[in-house]
Design brief:
The protein is of the alpha+beta class. It is built from six helices and seven strands; from the N terminus they run ααβαββαββααββ. It has helices at about 5-30, 40-65, 75-85, 100-115, 145-155, 165-180; strands spanning about 70, 90-95, 100, 125-130, 135-140, 185, 190-195.
Length: about 200
């Protein structure tokens, strides 16, 4: 089987960025331990470093390579989602217990980005499990579903043109197939429900 070059590149980029971002975070923490007044500027730097670190960890799972036997710890997922949500417009409610296969968490994180694209004013996304099926429900004050993008998830069209903002839609059909999952979704005025 050929390695997924894009996933390997994503893994490499995330791996190479996480160390310097972590070092910056450690430096900020050390500066905050000094007796001087660090003020609002230091708080802003600290918040930015934490957000960047969370996003890199998120991207590492969502866009990185995932082998069949790799697992992701529940506490890691909760930490990533809490840090990503801080200061954002989306709240993530992860109700799946225990460690999960990385391939399924990868599907969920990419799907979260797809759901976020449909919630322009923000909202809540609940991630649950019904037996072996993962269920994700996004709800907010306004739902804006790009039917062409979402329908292409069900029946990928050769030559479909994606923007960088919608790369998750390009990756999801292959990632879901790799995980042995079939996608179903429905939406109404203020919510979307996805199952895989």
């Amino acid at each position: 089987m050929q390695p997924d070059l894009a996933a390997l590149v994503g893994s490499r980029i995330c791996h190479d960025l996480i160390s310097p971002i972590g070092a910056i975070g450690n430096g900020v923490e050390l500066l905050s331990l000094t007796d001087g007044d660090t003020g609002a500027e230091m708080d802003l730097i600290n918040e930015s470093v934490q957000n960047a670190s969370a996003r890199i960890r998120y991207f590492r799972i969502a866009y990185g390579a995932a082998s069949e036997e790799q697992m992701v710890n529940r506490s890691e997922v909760l930490s990533i989602l809490a840090a990503t949500a801080r200061g954002g417009r989306i709240n993530y409610i992860w109700k799946i217990d225990g460690d999960q296969p990385r391939r399924l968490v990868r599907c969920a994180l990419l799907m979260l980005q797809a759901i976020e694209a449909s919630l322009p004013l923000g909202g809540d996304v609940h991630i649950t499990q019904e037996d072996d099926t993962w269920v994700m429900r996004g709800e907010g004050p306004r739902l804006s579903v790009d039917r062409e993008l979402w329908n292409n998830l069900l029946s990928p069209q050769i030559g479909f043109i994606y923007t960088a903002a919608h790369v998750q839609f390009a990756l999801l059909p292959g990632v879901l197939a790799e995980a042995g999952r079939t996608l179903q979704f429905k939406h109404e005025a203020n919510h979307i429900v996805v199952r895989f």
